[in-house]
Each structure stands twice: as C-alpha cells, then as structure tokens.
Amino acid sequence: MGHKEPMTIASALRQIQDRTLILPAIQREFVWKPSQVIRVFDSVMRGYPVGSFLSWKVLPETISEFKFYGFMRDYNAFDNRHNPVVDIPTDREVVAILDGQQRLTSLNIGLRGTYAYKNHGGWANKSWSYPERQLYLNLAGEAPENELGLKYHFQFLTGKDVDASRDDDSKIWLPVPEVFEASEMSSLIQLLAKYGVGNDPVASGLVSKLWDAIHKTASLHFYEETEQDIERVLDIFVRVNSGGTVLSYSDLLLSIATAQWDGDARAAVHGLVDELNQTGNGFGFSRDTVLKSGLVIADVGDIGFKVKNFTSANMAKLEAGWDSLSTSLQVAVGLLSDFGLSGGSLTADSVLIPVAYYVHHRGLGHAYRESPKTREDREALRSWVLRSLIVRGIWGSGLDTLLRDLREIIRSEGDEAFPVAAIERAMARRGKSLAVTDALVDDVLSLEYGRPRTFAVLAALFPHVDTRNQFHVDHIFPSALLDPKKLNRQVNEDGGLAFSPSQVDELVELKNQLPNLELLPGLENIGKLAATPAAWLAGEYSSSEERASFLERNALPSILPSSAEEFVAFFDKRRSNLEARIVKMLTPTTHLPGGISQTSSDFDEELVEGDDTD
Fold first, then answer.
1. CA nearest 59: which of 87, 91, 27?
2. Helix (H) or strand (E) holding 155
3. Could you give the CA distance from residue 435 to residue 167 in angstroms, rounded to a whole number?
4. Nearest CA-CA partner of 345 in 280, 288, 398
5. If you compute the radius of gyration of the chain from its CA atoms, what whole number of angstroms results?
6. Of 59, 58, 63, 39, nearest to 50 (Cα)?
7. How far is CA 265 from CA 27, 191, 259, 364, in A?
8. pLDDT digits (tens, 9 = 90+) for 300-322
9. pLDDT single digits (tens) 104-150
10. Which of 113, 237, 367, 607 has its CA 20 to 30 A from that of 568?
C-alpha cells in the first residue's frame, strides 16, 4: 500500500465520469444528508482537509472476479437511491474506492448532479414531493450565523426557489456545477460575466475561491492498495469501515454478502426492501430486518450480525432460497398490514421475523390472509403480534436469543397452527412475558394520540375492528372543544370562569390519552368532526339497540359527555373500562410451567431500557 500523488477535485470527478474511478460491490450506498454535503463544500472553500481516501488498484485479471458500481450523480430519495451497476472492460485497470465514498459522492452530486429530497410535510409516496435540487453558492456574501458553523452560503435549491429570490439583494445564486464545467480560466471569466459579477469584488472573490479549490488545489490524498487478493481487500475494508459511526454493521455485512453472492445481492436486497415498504399504507423496514430474516429463515445456527456468519456457504444457502424467502416476507408484511399496522404504528420491525418464519415453515401464500378456514389461526397470530408490540422491551435486548427460541418452537410445534401458548412460555422464560402487571396497565393507559404504540393497543383491545380497512385514531370527546384558549374563556351560568387554571391543565393533559381515543372508519371520523360524542352517537345510530351495541363494543360508558364539564367523569369511567379490558387481553389463557415467573422489579427495569419508543 502506497501514497499516491494528491489530485484536484476536478481530476477525481473526471475519473468518475469516465469510470476509471469506481466503487466495489462491498461499498455501501450513499447515505449522507444535504447538510453533510454542504459541510464538505464549506470545508473545501475554506481550504480545510476533507480527509484521506483509500483506493484499490484493480488489474484486468481481477475485474472479472468482482462486481462494481458507479458513483451516484442524481440522487433522488424517492426513486433513485441505488448506485448504477457498471460493466468494466476486462482489458483495462480501474481504481476502486474502499474508504471515502460518501465524500466523493457528495462532491460528485454537488458539482455534477442533483439531490432530490422530500419537501417538508410532503407525501412520502408521491414523486412530486421530491423536487430536483441543484447546489448553489450565494455570491452576495458569506453565510448568515448558523449552528453548523458554516462560513459560506451553499444551499440545495429548485429552479422555483431561485426564481423566487431574484428580487432579494441578499441572494445572488450561482449553480455550483457551472464552476466545475468552467475548466479553463477563460471559462471562469465568462462565468463571472454571465452572472454580472465580474466587477463585484465579493462575488468574484467567492467564485474564484471555489474555482481554485476545484480545479487548482490538489487537495485529495489517496492511499492505494495494489494487491489483488480479494480476501485481503475485504479485510482492509472491514477494518477501515467497522469503526465508523454512520456505517451500520448491516451495511458492512451486505457489502460482504454482495462480494460472495453469485448474483447481485445488493440489487436483490434493495429491491425486496423497497417492495416490502410499499405494502399497504407503507412501512419502513431496513436492510437489517431483511438480512436478519434471511439468517433466521435459512436456519443459520448463529443469527448474529457477525462477519463469520456471512460465509460463502451461508450466502449460497440464502441465495438458493431467495425466492421463497422473498415470498414469505411479502406474505408476512401483508399480514402486518392486514392487522392495521404500517410504518407509523409498527413500533418494532423485528416482529416481522417470527411471522415470516411461521409463514415460511408452513409454506403459506397470500391466500392464507383471506381464507375463512384460516381465520382462527390469523386471529391468534394477530393477537400475539399486537400484544408483543404493546409490552415494552419484548423486541429490544436479547433479540437474537429470543428469535432463535421462537424459531425452534415454530419449527417443532407450528406445523398446523401458530403455537401461541408454547411461544409465550418461551418468552416468559427469557423474561419477556406478555402477562399483565400494574406497571404495564398504567403505561398503556398513559399512551397518547399520535404515538406509534397507540394504534397497536387500540387494535388489540377492540378485535371487532377490521384493520384491513382504513381506520383513524379518533378523539372521542373532540380535541377542539378542549382547547386551552377556549377553556380559559368559558364561563358558567353565574358568569364566572367555568374552569380554574389547574382544571384547564388537567383537561388538556387528559384529552390526548388513551381513555379518550377510539378507532373509527376513516369516513366516519371525517364526518364526526368536532361533534360531541353524545350528539354524534344520536345522529349516527337511530335505534337504542344500535347505540348500546356501539358503546359495548368500544368499552364506552352508557352516558357520554356533551360538554367539557362532563369530560373528567367520562374519562375516569372509560379508563376503568379499558383497564379491565387490558387485564383480560393480556392475561395468558394457558398456565405457565412451574418455576416461571417475572417480578415487578425485573419488568420495571425492562420498561425503562429504552429499546422501544412510543
């Protein structure tokens, strides 16, 4: 390994253009955020070092033994997140980057391409929420004071953003890629003239400084490995990258899998992850979950994220069963969607793994999700999934041990039905009981509107809700009627304030908690708006029998509040009703074997481990 002559940024990008500087398959994908890209350019403008790079000189005889990718140029967080595969002629040598890909990709995007990220508040599943943005430099002056400590004002902007600021004297936006394209001094002079800043010392000084940093200063320092031993290169890559805080271990292992898989492991995993995440209302499963599922379903003994588990033999087993694995995961995610879950309400992605293993073990297809014959089994599975998401700490520490236990039970006792009783006994042995405790009941009843666990709790408490349809978490007594400004102005019959400040605080605190929440079909919730529950129920159901049935199904008291004055009494009664239902739902239907118990103190420790968040 030796030190190469430093090169300019422009020289490195031209090598990326002609694909003599590429990425080996063991590299992860581009993951940097726009602010990180901007910080790199700020460092470049300041003349700060951007770190050294580690490269690998790949000779023609080695090229055919490996897979390579090109650098990302036009990154789109919606539909262009994966690096392009490149076919390298076997009659020439190339240079592959082992360390520094994020920095070089950032330079490539900023100087040659675009970065399309989601608009704030935009729809995650709509392409128009991800407009194309170019990197610009503000020539009007240095950056305003900022928390990142940036000196120069770089920003990713759309064309509309630039047009909207044309009358703002504090903004003179220069597209950064035009500085890269101006490779000669004469082109730089023309660029200054094009934007009318040739006689502006501040603006021309900024453009010249950026031009020098890109075309003149040899700021990129490379250490180059020349050995063609792939095992040595892989070892170097692992040693260099495993200490990073941004690079996750699953990124590293996927890279190793890619190097050992006969096909394109990266494309296969990314394609499956994308497909799974488009199910139902959308999920947010990661490569970690898919890789872990692969190890479990392939019956690899040790399912830990360790380099030794990603051997050629295990990768061959995983690749051979990839189609079956993919189908099982698709059915399992479909079931989670049927259970009313999505990315916003699924508090632990790992629950997918035992569900997928059960589907795989029995060879179940999508017909399982709809067949009347499997309804009882689906309900058992649904109940277990939702209850495991309600109790904190189930899918946190000790995950691999738990998954191995669940796999063994499903393999030995899950041939005909989901073995709920055996699974819950095994979970209890691991200190992960689903049994009810006072701490758990209080924790559940304190859940609030908008928390991911809240939907799972409501869906589990009210099994009559067909979560395959669109349901909303609804405030029973409208939140709008418990607005603190309205409450502070409300007067009673005597003309005095209806509520003291402490009473207002109590009402505001209680309005978003579980006892004031229910699941309503989407259209019903929209139609309900800010009607009081008493008025809404009378208008929605014409007969007393229908109204009584609705109240019973939803654990509601017989008298519903028609005003804020009646809210606390209603809240307390509904809380009592829910408490009884929670205890009933979480109480095991089968007795645990002798000697298995879990103390309140042990469980309280699990509650504060922080493995899961609301």
1. 91
2. strand 154-157
3. 65
4. 280
5. 30
6. 39
7. 12, 45, 8, 25
8. 888 876 666 666 677 778 888 89
9. 999 999 999 999 999 987 888 889 999 999 999 999 999 988 888 89
10. 607
